[in-house]
Amino acid sequence: MRSLSKCFNDIKNSKNIAIICHTLPDADALSSAVALKKLIKQNNEDEKQIDIFVDAEEISDINNAIIKNVETNVQNCEQYDIAISVDCSNLSRMGKYIDIFNNAKSTINIDHHITNDNFAENNLVLKTSSTCEALYVMAKAKNLVISDDVCKLIYSGIITDTNNLTQGVITVRTHKIITEFLERNINLEQLNEHFFKNNTKSKAYLLKKALNSLSFLANDRIAFMKLTKQDLSECEANFEDTVGIVNHGIDIKGVDIAILAIKQEDNSYYVNLRGKNNINVANIAKQLGGGGHEQVAAFQYAGLLTDLREQLIKCCKEELNNHPVEDLSDTLFAGDDDLEIQKE
């Protein structure tokens, strides 16, 4: 891994820069791409050509707000001085823009996934809640000017990738960063409402179909849901409307692994995984060609649902066997009843 200083120096000396998100981009991917572009422009006096690439047929209105006023997918030069991937755990995640990355004179990989392949010439992979948080940590380390607009983007990536601070890698540093935004009077409540209280009727109908498909396995420790192309069509929904539905499975008492299998237009499946109680779903996803974090992971599968289900449940049961059922509720709020009052 090349040093952070060397990477930022390379960016400073580059005239043409490509920033590439992963396919089916979420808010963290889009926010980190736009935030990175703004950081580069705001901290360099010389004019740079910075192009953002997003391989996605559709982006929800909620996430489209992030890039609404940003030009994307326009290649303004044949070969870029530097190509920077954001929120990509491996090369294939860049989709049809992988050639732009591979043809660049230099490459940088900025990410936070524990399953990252370190595929670039320079890999800046931090164990953070999100790629946005990783980017903010690096910007602070280099004493960069960070505008309020960039702070909004960083916060957007943090709260969406952690499901509003309920899952993933959430540390003291994460909370300190949010405190810094509050101290700057960034309107965090407005951003929370945008991402978590702004769902469409299509998503509500889609959730109903997913819950109707709900089944339990492995002594109810696994919750399995599925959505078909017909489900999305009948609900007039798109892929972005599926985001967050899997969390309804992991919220159920006794469930340690939640699964949502979504059939796509090419008949492959996009599979979302959620875990709790120390279950590492990233290990499961990696066995099936995907990746992610201990509590949040995903993979794509080309094949029949019956085969997918068989392979996936087998991997899940192996992981569950390493973690016996443990109920912490009885001791969650206990521990200080025997404290003696100290008298002066």
Structural summary, described in words:
This protein has 344 residues and is of the alpha/beta class. The protein is built from 13 helices and 11 strands. It has helices at residues 4-12, 27-42, 61-67, 98-103, 131-141, 148-161, 172-183, 188-196, 201-212, 229-234, 247-250, 281-287, 305-321; strands at 16-20, 49-53, 82-86, 106-111, 122-125, 215-217, 222-227, 257-263, 269-275, 291-292, 296-301. The strands form 2 sheets. The chain has a 6-stranded mixed sheet, sandwiched between helices. The protein has a 5-stranded parallel sheet with strand order 2-1-3-4-5. α4 (98-103) links the parallel β3 and β4. The radius of gyration is 21 Å and the shape is globular. The relative contact order is 0.10. The mean pLDDT is 92.
Give the helix/strand layout:
Blueprint: H1 4-12, E1 16-20, H2 27-42, E2 49-53, H3 61-67, E3 82-86, H4 98-103, E4 106-111, E5 122-125, H5 131-141, H6 148-161, H7 172-183, H8 188-196, H9 201-212, E6 215-217, E7 222-227, H10 229-234, H11 247-250, E8 257-263, E9 269-275, H12 281-287, E10 291-292, E11 296-301, H13 305-321
Parallel strand pairs: 1-2, 1-3, 3-4, 4-5, 7-8
Antiparallel strand pairs: 6-7, 8-9, 9-11, 10-11
Indicate the proportion of strand residues: 15-25%
Output mean pLDDT.
92
For the largest beta-sheet, the strand count, sense and barrel status come to: 6 strands, mixed
Low-confidence stretches: none
What is the percent of helical residues?
A: 25-40%
- What spatial order of strands do you see in the largest sheet? 6-7-8-9-11-10
**Total beta strand runs:** 11
First and last CA, distance: 56 Å
SSE order, as H and E? HEHEHEHEEHHHHHEEHHEEHEEH
So what's the overall shape?
Answer: globular
Q: What is the radius of gyration?
A: 21 Å
Q: Total helix count?
A: 13
* Helix/strand structural class: alpha/beta
